[in-house]
Amino acid sequence: MTQEQNGPANTPDCFFCRRRAGGEEDPVGGYLYEDEHFLVGHGLLDMSEPGSMLVESRRHVLDPGDMTEDELRSLNALIPRFYRAMHDGLDVERVYLVAATSSNPHFHAWLHPCNPVEGERGVTFLARDHSCTEAEAREASARVAERLPARAAT
Ligand SMILES: [Zn+2]
Fold first, then answer.
1. Phi, psi torsion values for 95, nearest 5 degrees
2. Is the pLDDT of residue 54 over 70?
């Protein structure tokens, strides 16, 4: 799919484009990671476990099929860093990577920490209602941030 098929870049109808333009708040605790193609911060509080991370592309593209080689290299580099930081910082059994882009056709991928609730894992776990407080998000974000490699090492 081409950029044109995804609609115009920086559309005001898109939450992530509005966020890039300063029309939506940054994640609670701020962005933990930024490069020229992606930003990563805590997920929206009404959709997150404490420590859920949201990877956002700067460009209004639907999915990796629309990304440039440079964007794909950045994405490929940052995802394992967050897996490691979340496992170490949050002490979770699994980290789930989910990119549905169902409400905004702008690439964003969730990294959900999972410690099974009542034995529920996988899709059953993801289908639960997730939320956390601002304090929980800040505390979990700080623990993930402590485990991320220094920016200079990227
Ligand atoms: Zn967008």
1. -120, 125
2. yes
Following DSSP, what letter does each residue of 123-140 receive, concatenated?
Answer: HHHHTS-----HHHHHHH
pLDDT on residue 151: 57
- Between the CA of 23 and the centroid of ligand 1 the distance, in Å, is 12
Report d(CA 148, CA 88) in Å as an integer.
10
The CATH number that domain 4-153 falls under is 3.30.428.10
Domain locations along the chain: 4-153
Distance 109 CA to ligand 1 centre (A): 13
Mean pLDDT computed over 134-141: 97
Residue written as token pair 């009542």: 118
C-alpha span between 10 and 79 (Å, rounded): 24
Residue 19 to residues 11, 14, 56, 93: CA-CA distances in angstroms?
A: 11, 9, 10, 32
Which residues keep their CB under 5 angstroms from ion ligand 1? 14, 16-17, 60, 106
